[in-house]
Amino acid sequence: MSKRILIVDDEEVIRKFLKIHLDKLGYEVTEAEDGEKAIEKIGRGDKFDLIICDVMMPNKNGWEVLKEVKSNPELNGIPIILLTAKNDDVDIFKGYELGANYYITKPFTKDQLLYGLKLMF
Amino acid sequence: MILVYFLLLLLFVMKEQDKKKIILLLRWGAIIVTSYLILLGRGKVADPNLSHLLVLGYIISNLVLTFCPSSWLLNPKFFYPLVLGDTGIILLGMYLSEKMVTDFYLAFFLIIIFASLSRSFKLLMFIGGATSLLYGFLLYSWGLLISPEGSSYALRIPFIFIMTAFYGYLVQTLTREKHKELSISEDKYRGLFENANEGIIILKDPSLQIADVNREAEKTTQYPKEELLGIEIFYLFGAEENEKAKSYLKEVMGKGEGRVDDLPLRKRDGTFFEADLSIKRIGLGEESFFQMIFRDITEKRKLERKIIESKRNLEAIFDGIGDQLSIQSPDFEILQVNKSVIERHATTFTGLNGRKCYEAYYQKTSPCEGCPLLVTIETRQPASAILKFPEAERVQEIFSYPVSDEKGKLLYLIEYVKDVTEEQRLQEQLIQSEKLAGIGILASGVAHEINNPLSGIIGMAEVALEEEDPTKNRGYLTDILTCGQRIGEIVNGLRSYSRTAKRGDLGATDLHEVLETSLKMVQLATQSVSVEVIKNFQPVEKIKANPGEIQQVFTNLITNAFQAMNGKKGRLILSSRSLKDFVEIKVSDSGVGIPPQYLNQIFDPFFTTKKMGEGTGLGLNIVYRIVTKYEGTIEVASTEGVGTTFTIKFPKWRQGL
User: Fold this and answer.
1) Binary contact (A85, B455; C-beta < 8 A)
2) What is the ipTM of this complex?
3) How far are the Cα atoms of B351, B387, B569, B571 from residue B391, in angstroms, in the given order?
4) Is residue B327 within 8 Å of residue B352, measured between CB atoms?
5) What are the pLDDT digits (tens) for B178-191?
6) pTM above 0.80, yes or no
7) Facing B567 at nearest CB: one of A61, A88, A107
8) Structural domains in chain A, sorted by start
9) Residue among A10, A13, A85 minimizing CB distance to B460
10) What is the pLDDT of residue A50?
């Protein structure tokens, strides 16, 4: 059974090319356009093997998604890759402190994404 | 005979009114006697008619005296003609009479002369008595008393005394009335003396013992009168000043008067008070005194010293002020300057005094443009302005204050000149560096924003490169194009922002345009997608400012607003409206608000509640500096958890200013 990945980003084009790449790699991809929708989807009981999440988003941002997932004992095992334009050290450290498993800064290449996936699985 | 003497004796014991009656009675008696004597001498008298005339004259004179008011007797205009008249009558009698009559009249004539000269009733009565007796003795020695007309001769003796008494009475009345007048004026003097506001001490001349003191002198010295009377005045000067007092008093005694204000006088309790005293020699009757008038000037001296001291302090402050201060007349004439002015213009006070300030300070022929003194002259209110003097390469902040009299008439202008050249330079530098820091923060925000479409371009390009189906590539390329265009927009926004920022000159600034650019820039930088922006713009006038600086103000305020809403849902309201002389801009957010204890610190430099790297702590300080630089005001109202509103007012742009 293929692994299920949730992509959360408010930029449609980013979700689009991520899905193309991940589809090709044989993952089952679900998209969410903001943090709120992502939480909804996770809460509905869909079991995800990985969440790739943007930070700056309307409604609920990446930090909040991260906090909610990691503070939920049933969900905190799901690895999360933060994908963000925020590339200051402070932001990266904050991400790891909140329990992010990996941190990819925008803009990124396919290779950088693949390296992240390799680390997760 | 005996009756006559009895009446004379009565004169001494009788009341005033009765005296006049007795005197007149006696005088009438004397006239009858005279008439009798003349009649007796009939045949010897050359002209009997003239002798009748003589008696008639005397009768008239007596009638006048009988019915005249008493006050006439006091009047020299009445008294002396009476005496002259009497003398004339007697001289006529002498002319008319033979020897025996003449000697009588001669004696009588002497009495009148005595009466005119002597003011003493007793002396006159004595002379009168002596003359009567002498005359009696002469008559006796001449053997006339035992002659056949002896009785008529004997009558002449009391007659002389009667006339003496008459004149004596007149003289006495006169003296008494004079005395009465004197005593009235003495009462007046006593009143003045006792009620004077100044201490008065009367000193005997030359012993300088105290003869009298008034109430004020008792009060001032605290000595009761009885303790002062008789003591020497030196006692009141105290031992230390005794030599000085002696030499002063010696001088006064020589000159007859003198004044001194540095001789302290002693009080009963041993303390001294400073006195302003003047001494003058006065004559009272036959005696001579010194009248010493003094006033306690301790309080006055204290006040004087205080005034001098405060004047000295003020002068020290005036000169100690490092900025230039000058006091000028309303037509710009320099009246007084402090040391800084003299040093700054390398001159002396005389080099400036009376010259017009614009001539002396700025080498101009008319008041400087924008001078706040002109405003103060017009409005009577303090004013200030920052004036640039390019020729001297100086910037000066000039404050002017009016000094008016109680009717509001402008008396002086105080011009306070603060050289702010360096301060201005530093401020410009600070504004510039904060601008750079602000741009840095914004730029990193904008860079983040670019990263999203850039990621899209890179990602989609990689997808397109791998795609084997060329028909799908069209869609990918469209995405790449869209992302590229978005980056283009961001860069354009950045450029328009920096374009405004670069416009460094003062000019008519459109606040709406600057607000829009600033908002766009901040939105790009903060990616605050969840904030709703409401613009309540009303048509407003332009202001005179450097657009770059105004942009700095708005960018700071809008950035703060976004940060206050902290990426959460919120509302930013930008509003503008035109007031009478001002244009008002409001920036309101629905953010966390400012805790009340910070409200009065937010404009302080380096005050920040933000984390390192998020803010310089200079933002609002710079906002404040820029707003006040353009004579605007900024106010803040904030409620924690509800939001914050900044209200800025800029003066409208007026042509010619």
Assistant:
1) yes
2) 0.90
3) 22, 12, 55, 50
4) no
5) 666 666 677 777 88
6) no
7) A61
8) 4-120 (3.40.50.2300)
9) A13
10) 93
